[in-house]
Please model this.
Amino acid sequence: MRKDIVNAGLGMLVLTLLCGILYPLLVTGVSQVAFPGNANGQQVFVHRKLVGSKLIGQSFTERNGKPDPRYFQTRPSGTSPADNAAGSAFADYGPNSVVTERALVANIRAYIALNGRYYPGGLTAARVPVDAADTSASGIDPDVSVRNADIQAYRIAAVRHLSRSTVDRLISRFTGRRGLGFSGEPGVNVLELNLALDRIS
Model:
């Protein structure tokens, strides 16, 4: 009996040392050397000040909380408060839910209100991209579709007094490829795009 207790205690101590201390230190060390950007959450610094992460969406708003028209906006956030990385989640309402329908309608209206007056010929609900109407699975997606960015580009060019070709070049510069070269759709990183806009204007 005593031998079993001693063996169990030693086993627990050894496994705690291996799995709870040595293995995490090894993985952390290797990741810091091989993939420092990913290991640290793809943090973005401007003048040595942390301004965000390439992996987490963030709101670009005015003091009153409304979207700032000078910046590209990410897709609607599914967290409360918006773009809260600590509360990443998706809504569990079905596609036929009244709550889902109301949220989609509200998001479409907000998108049209922000971009409609700048879009040639006016912007209708049928032209609003899906990622401008619905949240992502994480609720904090940092990217928008190329179509979404193209629609917002009319507003950005007008408000910042830039040519469309200048804005289009920036969109192309910060458009990522499909995952593994074939999965999903190309996405435009909103944080990097907005920081580049601030640099040129």
User: Anything to note?
Assistant: The chain has a mean pLDDT of 86. The first strand starts at residue 43 and ends at 46. Strands lie at 43-46, 49-53, 143-145, 187-189. DSSP finds seven helices and four strands in the chain.
